[in-house]
Amino acid sequence: MSDSEIVERTIAFVKETLAGAEGGHDWFHVQRVFKNTLFIAKDEKVDVLTVSLAALLHDIADAKFNNGDEAIGPALAENFLKELRVKKKTITHVVKIIKNMSFKNSLQKKRGRKLRSKELFVVQDADRLDAMGAIGIARAFNYGGFKNREIYNPEIAPNLKMTKEEYKNSTAPTINHFYEKLLLLKDQMNTETGKKLAEHRHWYMMDFLQQFFKEWNPLALPTD
Ligand code: ADP
Ligand code: NI
């Protein structure tokens, strides 16, 4: 099977598997990450098939929606790629990328699973970009709504020192998520292209927050 046929088959599989997924983690999220991946990959020496498959399969079974089970996604991806008879070396790399994208850093270190590959860096940047900017804002509020969280609550301050467990069980308002995660992404980008795109999306979120607080508290600010 040709590489483009493998990619086409994977797209069909992901679309089918993610039918009915929450709006921030649906096929369109995957499609955007795939597009970001191809865009970033233009400037990097990476294996295009590997980054394409990793982008397409990275959220195939998010632990958040599978009782915290982090093994389901990588296993599903592996089985699917085996059925397509993708080269073993490519499968191994794709599965490692997916694992590294979903495991939180602290856990990775503990279990010694940390992978460093250019292909991982590209897909990771592509995924992080989709959590930023206008789309990042839309996704955050969509996810918050899905979890029935408050938009904002002035009495609940962001917590920058949450453990993974606390983070998972957090019921904090969605605005806090910007300070706990989204505004930190800019400095976590790996590639030059990723950094450039992230910069723009970062400042867009900062503008949004400024406007949000102005509207929340009109009396605190001069009117002109
Ligand atoms: P990804 O699937 O992109 O790797 P996550 O699964 O961590 O990343 O989050 C997916 C989307 O859901 C992101 O846009 C993120 O901002 C949003 N999200 C995750 N946790 C929260 C939260 N506690 N509050 C609001 N949005 C969240
Ligand atoms: Ni994702």
TrEMBL record:
Pfam families: HD
Domain HD: 26-132
Domain of life: Bacteria
CDD domains, per the entry: HDc
Coiled-coil segments: none
PROSITE patterns in the cross-refs: HD
Record SMART domains: HDc
Name of the protein: HD domain-containing protein
Organism, as annotated: Pricia mediterranea
Lineage of the organism: Bacteria, Pseudomonadati, Bacteroidota, Flavobacteriia, Flavobacteriales
